[in-house]
């Protein structure tokens, strides 16, 4: 899909990690034995497989996200039908062949993990089909909503991982050495095409100018180019259409009062290369700041109080990931608590992107409410019977 080599290797490693995790999980999936109010009776919860899991994934994680679903579904006793992105079919085919080989080496049919290629027509068929016990969808909020409505129509189960509009908040007491590399990783990594990409950066007014300057310097040093070369930090956007979206977001941001601090242009070379971009001067509630554009554009805003910064974090429709940088323990606990971040992923002194498979991964509000990967996410892939 165009991501840089180390990120591609990391993604395959994530599949390996979730397989390790799932093997252990397979030994502990279980339900409680509860005291019955009726003498001489037993009250037990058992988890059974949902049957067939339909897995629809996006171009940006063409390996790992299928892995997160596939490994859990298998240890829960389900079979899988995968539809990857139409633009990453070769990756889907390669992964499916590896999994089929493992199954067949163990005298199981390769079709336990089946693949279908195709676009919205196939996604639609999966959403509508009564035989699909769970539909796991990763992609945009718009498409996710259509899928969700179709699945709900038949009272099917769904697991949604949709858009994010993730903010990093930096307070005046933060360890400022952590900030530049963290923001760079979160805003420019995968060329801004992660659902966990940092798109909004709120800087306390006392450190604003200093950080903007340091970040601009760091952005200038980002090596953009062939994603296969080991010293490249930023590869291309996935499609020409993504380049158009990048340009139109920058135009809209300018119309809404934004200024380009660095970047802002398409790079004149074959491929869909754009300059990682920083913009300032926008209001926290400008329409463009509330929109997820799948490109490396970072909107930087200046804040005065904690209350204001937390409110800005929460005021967007999406609710995936969020980060603060601070050393103030009281503030950290306020951020983690009920009046803090309303996101599914709530970080302290680390950036917004980079999921850990042991934790439940997912987000609230228009991000869809699903949880994948670790913790008790396996429950999505099973149905509960109370005996
Ligand atoms: C990560 O940030 O490491 O589409 C994982 C995405 C997510 C996965 C992000 N489903 O970007």
UniProtKB/TrEMBL annotation:
Q: Which UniProt keywords apply?
A: NAD, Oxidoreductase
Q: Which SUPFAM superfamilies match?
A: ALDH-like (SSF53720)
Question: Record's PROSITE patterns?
Answer: ALDEHYDE_DEHYDR_GLU (PS00687)
Q: Per its UniProt entry, which superkingdom is the organism in? A: Eukaryota
Q: Which InterPro entries match?
A: Ald_DH/histidinol_DH, Ald_DH_C, Ald_DH_CS_GLU, Ald_DH_N, Aldehyde_DH_dom, ALDH7A1-like
The signal peptide stretch is none
Q: Where is the composition biased (Basic and acidic residues)?
A: 363-379
Which Pfam family would be a valid example here?
A: Aldedh
Return the annotated region ranges for Disordered: 362-387
Q: Which GO terms describe its molecular function?
A: aldehyde dehydrogenase (NAD+) activity
User: Is the Disulfide bond keyword given for this protein?
Assistant: no
Show where the Aldehyde dehydrogenase domain sits: 1-384
Q: What is its EC number?
A: 1.2.1.3
The active site consists of 161
CDD domains recorded: ALDH_F7_AASADH (cd07130)
The record's family statement is: Belongs to the aldehyde dehydrogenase family.
The molecule here is called aldehyde dehydrogenase (NAD(+))
Species of provenance: Aquarana catesbeiana
């Amino acid at each position: 899909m165009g991501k840089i080599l180390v990120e591609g290797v990391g993604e395959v490693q994530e599949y390996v990690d979730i397989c390790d995790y799932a093997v252990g999980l397979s030994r502990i999936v279980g339900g409680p034995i509860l005291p019955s109010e009726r003498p001489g009776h037993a009250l037990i919860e058992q988890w059974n497989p949902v049957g067939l899991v339909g897995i629809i994934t996006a171009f940006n994680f063409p390996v790992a996200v299928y892995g997160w679903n596939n490994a859990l579904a298998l240890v829960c006793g389900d079979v899988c039908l995968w539809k990857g992105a139409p633009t990453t079919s070769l990756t889907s085919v390669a992964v499916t062949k590896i999994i089929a080989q493992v199954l067949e080496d163990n005298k199981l049919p390769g079709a336990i993990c089946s693949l279908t290629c195709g676009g919205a027509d196939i996604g639609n068929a999966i959403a509508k089909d009564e035989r699909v016990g769970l539909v796991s969808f990763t992609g945009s909020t718009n498409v996710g909503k259509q899928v969700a409505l179709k699945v709900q129509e038949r009272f099917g189960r769904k697991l949604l991982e949709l858009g994010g509009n993730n903010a990093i908040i930096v307070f005046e007491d933060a360890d400022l050495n952590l900030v530049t590399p963290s923001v760079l990783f979160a805003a420019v990594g995968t060329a801004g095409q992660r659902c966990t990409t940092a798109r909004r950066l709120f800087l306390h007014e006392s450190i604003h100018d200093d950080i903007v300057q340091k970040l601009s310097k760091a952005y200038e040093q980002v090596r953009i180019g062939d994603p296969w070369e080991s010293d490249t930090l930023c590869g291309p956007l996935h499609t020409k259409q993504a380049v158009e979206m990048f340009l139109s977001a920058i135009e809209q941001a300018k119309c809404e009062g934004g200024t380009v601090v660095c970047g802002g242009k398409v790079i004149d070379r074959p491929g869909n290369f754009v300059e990682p971009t920083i913009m300032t001067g926008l209001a926290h509630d400008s329409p463009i700041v509330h929109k997820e554009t799948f490109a490396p554009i970072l909107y930087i805003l200046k804040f005065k109080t904690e209350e204001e910064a937390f409110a800005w974090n929460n005021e967007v429709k999406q609710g995936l990931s969020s980060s603060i940088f601070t050393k103030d323990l009281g503030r950290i606990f306020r951020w983690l608590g009920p009046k803090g971040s309303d996101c599914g992923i709530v970080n302290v002194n680390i950036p917004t992107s980079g999921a850990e498979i042991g934790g439940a991964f997912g987000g609230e509000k228009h991000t869809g409410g699903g949880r994948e990967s670790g913790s008790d996410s396996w429950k999505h892939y099973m149905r509960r019977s109370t005996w």
